[in-house]
Amino acid sequence: MTKPPRKPAQPLLGEADALLRSRPRRRRDPAQPQLSLDPMPARIDPCLALLKPRPPKGPQWAFEVKWDGYRLAVHIEPSGVRIITRGGHDWTDRFPAILAAAKRLPVATAILDGEAVVFDEQGRSDFGRLQQSLGGRGGKRTSREAVMMAFDLLYFDGRDLSGMELAARRHLLEGLVPAGGEEAIRLSEEIEADGETLLRIACEHGLEGIVAKDRNSTYRGGRGGEWQKIKCIQSGGFAIVGYQCSNAAFGNIRALLLAARKGGELVYVGSVGTGFKADEAMKLRAMMDKIKATNPAVKYSGGRKNLIWIKPKLVAEIEYRAWTHDGKLRHPSYKGLRDSADDLSVFEIE
């Protein structure tokens, strides 16, 4: 018996002006096996930028502005959103605007890496303003002014991206957080420029510096050199080992005595007497008076009078221009106390 002729196949494209439509999807058969998903990590050790005196050269390097704030990881999970600090503390409730913006992102699961910042009138990130918005070191206030500048995507819709090269991670991040947004989560944009030129422009505009990242690198915790930071003004964390009293200064603090680490011990690197505000100085004096020490934690022969020594438990963020020939900070300025939830590491002298 002869089979009836088949109906002619539909052409790949119909009329030129006709709309192309896909077939409606059928519901997934529950018995059909699913693709396995990567387990979502509870925390990822952050990749840190290595301090360098000059920007690297080569086509593999991408450049961004260096933001001056608190490092954050935003975890978007089926159960909700968590905001984790660099030190592993849960600060979800302290950044309500960032939390609300994370909930609006069009993604089921993700981990965004970025920096929480507060901007000044010129649009520059200001570490002091961020600390004030949170109530200072050890404060418990929420910051509604803070926004997150997102610069990496480590987990996305069930997939661990840490083993993927930076260029691919950035491509996915830019699709999730578009450039030019005004939400509380914004894209830290790559800037197409020569590193030396960008650093010069950043310094002229009063920015802290720039960050260079190897586009071909995977994401690894610690300072492996895949990310590098180049600063306009040097800064770092220095242990406060004492202070000089003065009845004419805010909080009776004429100067703080600072120390860095060298060969496993603390060494004296000078003092700082500028950058204090009245209310901050009073709080700082109260904290220092609770940890007074009989003997200094460093060898000291500076000749200052009216010195009070303290245990080296407080770490101050200090800006400075350079180092003197005898290993002291040149033109230092106090920026604030570092918080244990962010970073308490003390500057190490090589």
UniProtKB/TrEMBL annotation:
One of its GO terms (biological process) is DNA recombination. Residues 19-40 are annotated as: Disordered. InterPro entries: ATP-dep_DNA_ligase (IPR050191), DNA_ligase_ATP-dep_C (IPR012309), DNA_ligase_ATP-dep_cent (IPR012310), LigD_ligase_dom (IPR014146), NA-bd_OB-fold (IPR012340). One of its GO terms (molecular function) is DNA ligase (ATP) activity. Keywords: Ligase. Pfam families: DNA_ligase_A_C (PF04679), DNA_ligase_A_M (PF01068). It comes from the Bacteria. Its EC number is 6.5.1.1. The keyword Protein biosynthesis does not apply. It catalyses: ATP + (deoxyribonucleotide)n-3'-hydroxyl + 5'-phospho-(deoxyribonucleotide)m = (deoxyribonucleotide)n+m + AMP + diphosphate. PANTHER family: DNA LIGASE 1 (PTHR45674:SF4), DNA LIGASE 1/3 FAMILY MEMBER (PTHR45674). Belongs to the ATP-dependent DNA ligase family. NCBIfam families: NHEJ_ligase_lig. This is DNA ligase (ATP). The lineage of its organism: Bacteria, Pseudomonadati, Pseudomonadota, Alphaproteobacteria, Hyphomicrobiales.
